[in-house]
Amino acid sequence: MRRPSYLIRRDGRYCLRLRVPDCLQSVLGLKEIRRALGTADPRRARVLAATTAAPIWEAMEGIRMATDDKEIDAAKSALLDLLQRKSDAAKNLAAEALRSVELQKRVIALKDELASETLAQSEQERRALTMVTAKAMAGLTPPDPFAALHLQARRPWWELIETFFDEVKQTPANRANYMREFNRLADVIGRDRPLGLIRFDDLDKHHDALLLKAKPRKGNTTLSSKSQQRCLSHLKTFFSWAYGKEWLDRDPSKALRVKGLTRRETKEIKRRSFSPNELGLLFNAPVFTGCKSADRLKETGPYIYRGGRYWLPIMALWTGGRLSELTQLRCSHISYQSGLWYADLAILPDTGEDVGSPRDRDGGKTEHSHRLAPLHPDFLALGFLDFVEHRRTLGGDSALLFDEIADHGKFFNDDWFDKGRRVTGLFASVGIKTSKTSFHSLRHSFNNIIRTGGREGMDSRLQDRLMGHAPEGAAAHYGMPLTDDEARAFLAVKALVDLSHLLPTPERPAIPSKARPAIRKRQPTAAPRKRVLVPGKVAD
Question: Is this model's pTM higher than 0.70 or not?
Answer without folding.
Answer: no
